[in-house]
Amino acid sequence: MITLRKITLENRRSIFNLEVSEEQRQYVASNLSSVASCYVLATNGGSPFPLAIYADEQPVGFVMITYGITGYDLPVIADNSYCILRLMIDKQYQSMGYGREALKKILEFIRTFPAGPARYCWIPYSPDNLAAKKLYESFGFHENGEVCHDELITVLEL
């Protein structure tokens, strides 16, 4: 069973040590860098949610969700919307359905509106990351025509 959990003093190292495969590293920052970005966002008016992804009691991935500001140039859709800015499953746990199950849990969490109301959730992704595109489309995300930092913006109405 997939669950989302806070990053704690006890689990932080295991989350920081999770990695994607070599060919995927171009698509996602390290989890340590992402957690540091969350700290900077939180101390500058943002609402980040860095969460560990667990399969039963085993940490298998990481997600960084933001609301409103992300610290980057923003697409038009970003105002009062949630963003799944980072999502990764460790290389040894890929192709086991964890990414799909995690995205279900992430969307359930977002739909509780933990930082405020929103109409949309958006995800930036590299145009050549076809696995991500396929996953997002299977949940109803659609590209809205915007590009930020050479990444396509895909949007889901909540």
Automatic annotation (TrEMBL):
Ranges where the N-acetyltransferase domain occurs: 2-158
Protein's UniProt name: Diamine N-acetyltransferase
Organism classification: Bacteria, Bacillati, Bacillota, Bacilli, Bacillales
GO molecular function: acyltransferase activity, transferring groups other than amino-acyl groups
Taxonomy, superkingdom: Bacteria
InterPro entries attached to this UniProt entry: Acyl_CoA_acyltransferase, GNAT_dom, MshD_Acetyltransferase, Sper_AcTfrase_N
Keywords for the protein's UniProt record, in alphabetical order: Transferase
The keyword Transmembrane belongs to this UniProt entry's keyword annotation: no
Pfam (any one): Acetyltransf_1
Signal peptide span: none
CDD domains on file: NAT_SF (cd04301)
